[in-house]
Amino acid sequence: MPIKDSLSKLEQAVVISEALPYIQRYHGKTIVIKYGGAAMQSNKLCRQVMGDIVLLSLVGIRVVVVHGGGPEINEVLVKMGKKPKFVNGLRHTDNETMDIVRMVLAGRVSKQMAQLLGELGGKAISLSGMDGRLLVAKKHEGEDDLGLVGDITHVDPDPINLALNGGYTPVISSIACGEESGEMYNINADSAAAQVAVAVGAEKLILLTDVRGLLRDPSYESTLISALTVSEIPQLLKSEVITGGMIPKVDCCVEAVRRGVPRAHILDGRIPHSLLVELLSDQGIGTMITG
User: Fold this and answer.
1) Reduced to 3 DSSP states, what percent helix, strand and coil does the chain have, rounded to the nearest 5?
2) CA-CA distance, 265 to 242, in Å (whole number)?
3) What's the angle, vertex CA 29, arms to CA 253 and CA 165, rounded to 5?
4) Confidence (pTM)
5) In the predicted model, what is the mean pLDDT of residues 186-198?
């Protein structure tokens, strides 16, 4: 056998053995993964992410997936002749748009992800935040009126735990019931994932996104901040290291950590097998936020 091939197999064996202590550490623990947006756009990458989730489940890690689907929603809106509307980067959701959000997230994206997990050898069940009043929200209050955009006020972990205890991976779309009968709200998927992580007592919250993590200089990936604590974040906000769309992601991580989730991570979902590198290797990847 050529030396090159032998070394390759040896390296593979080292990687597998390196994963053992992490499998033991997280066996029986719950990990909440937010997956959505641009990180979902490549079919090849999406299949790899779903395969990684199946692998994690098969080694005894309880995985909950919370997803968005902004590009898919925009695509359907345009096909229906309705221009997507954003206010300061946040989607304005009127009644017609809310119907489309529900149709796309709960009716298509969630089902497709659950189906793919099943095809790859896992067991998955598609849930929306409206099923069993899993997510309850009130209208978002802010300077701008975003229509039917909500802030979560309650998460019922029972439907999630029932699925997990049955060996299923819950795939949860980020729409919620209102506190009043008949109300329905569009929820930011990062925020929904953070709230779910707190409710189920997750060991980790992982936000899969389309950037390497938090960068001191967005022009250089070499400036990645691999780890920081909640107490360091105000200074990074003040110095504008954390800006734009990264602010709500960091805010969600901070909220989860402050409410009991030991670690929150921002990972680049475009990197093949970034989940496995983060969870099952010494290397780690992305930005980790701790208390």
Assistant:
1) 45, 25, 30
2) 15
3) 115
4) 0.90
5) 95
